[in-house]
Amino acid sequence: MALTRTTATFAPPVMEARRWLDGVNFTDEMPLLNVSQAAPVDPPPLPLRQFLAETALNVPDAHLYGPVLGLPELRSEVATQWTASYGGDIGPQNVTITSGCNQAFAAAITAICTEGDEVIIPTPWYFNHKMWLDMLGVKSMPLVTDNEMLPDPERARALITDKTRAIALVTPNNPSGVEYPPALVRALYQVAQDAGIKLIIDETYRDFDSRDGAPHDLFTAPDWGQTLIQLYSFSKAYRLTGHRVGALVGAESLLAEAEKFLDTVAVCPNHLGQHAALWGMQNLGDWVAGERLEILDRRAAISEYFPQIAATGWKLKGVGAYFAYVQHPFDMGSDKLAQKLVKDIHVLALPGTMFTPENDPDGRQDMRIAFANVARPDIKLLFDRISTVSAQ
After folding, report:
1. What architecture (CATH level 2) is domain 13-43+287-386?
2. 38, 99, 192, 245: which could form a disulfide with 322 (CB 3.0–4.6 Å)?
3. Strand 366-370 vs strand 323-327: parallel, antiparallel, or unpaired?
4. CA nearest 103: which of 203, 7, 231?
């Protein structure tokens, strides 16, 4: 097969992992525990589904093309709520609605990069970010994180060349779950500003941050649009995964370039999903707060029950948002171990090899556990099963 944009990268990891289920017979005594994907599997809350149905029936425009940059009302609501949450000056002209947060990243990268450019991404990385960079011909520059899974600003500075266009972060992080401290985010912003490049912050999981208040103060900078690009997803907060609604926040000049990309690949974001996101923002604040508390309880359960497998050599490297990132004690690659867990204990998790450069020693030893869809009792069951695993 000839080399193409798509052959330049790897197969979608979640889809690859699902193929490991083929031929495995799950039982009532040991059903599958799927901790591979971070997307909610439950539908939106009933009031939101009712609103969606009424909108589909009664709003003719919801079935037509809309503005490429999104519904003006939703852009305005994001600007208003973000200004209240982060401070600073964010207007509707700074907000673009996208077909999911992955598209927001793709639009941002396409607007600021060309083939041969470089983007710095901390490892372990979010694999869809790496895939898009590969397909665009942009070189990913791995920024190794420390023992607390945090990127070092000075290491980032040392990676910058005349081809560097951005540093791309995810916080709370996917895959590690770690929440980047405000001072660290500010320091990385300063590195980007000094170099005249962008700092991209994917805040898909901001609604499940354990901290109160703004996770950073970057929007208070008077010229934030010259450096900062923020990405967001409505999928996790309102369970709108199938409706594909995300957001890109940045300078007007950036959005003008992103609009070219968005018009070409999708024309406009899903109209029904945008109406749902707007209604959710205006009506589901208390419900989202309850969802956050449930996720924080699951995070606490990870920490409470982990000593059961720590006793057999496992290590908890990071936990937060929807994820726990763990190190296994066996002399085998995590890709092989992940397939063994499916067969032996009916657990589907993603190996660290899917989040790191090829032959990275940390990737070989690490695994990601996504606990968005496993409540406290299943987390206990998960560690019960893992405690029985051997290297044989």
Report:
1. Alpha-Beta Complex (3.90)
2. 38
3. antiparallel
4. 231
- Helix-helix angle 101-112:127-136, to 10 degrees: 40
Pair 350, 36: CB distance under 8 Å: yes
Strand order from edge to edge, sheet including 366-370:
315-320, 323-327, 366-370, 350-351
* DSSP helix/strand/coil, 165: strand
> What distance in Å separates the CA atoms of residue 31 and residue 383, rounded to the nearest whole number?
14
The SS3 assignment for 245 reads: coil
| Rg of the chain (C-alpha set) | 21
Secondary element (H or E) of residue 167? strand 164-170
For the segment 339-381, what is each residue's pLDDT rounded down to a tens digit?
Answer: 999 999 999 999 999 999 998 999 999 999 999 889 999 999 9
Q: Where are the domains of the chain?
A: 13-43+287-386, 60-284
CB 391 within 8 A of CB 344: no
> What is the C-alpha separation between 125 and 132, in angstroms, rounded?
12
Contacts of 383 (CB under 8 A, 6+ apart): 305, 306, 308, 309
How many CA atoms within 13 Å lie on the side-chain side of 40? 23
Q: Tell me: domain 60-284, CATH 3.40.1550.10, correct?
A: no
> For the chain, how many residues are written?
392
Query: Strand, helix or coil at 369?
Result: strand
Produce one character per residue of 125-151: b if its CB has 16 or more CB atoms within 10 Å, e if not: bbbbbbbbbbebebbbbbbebeeebbb
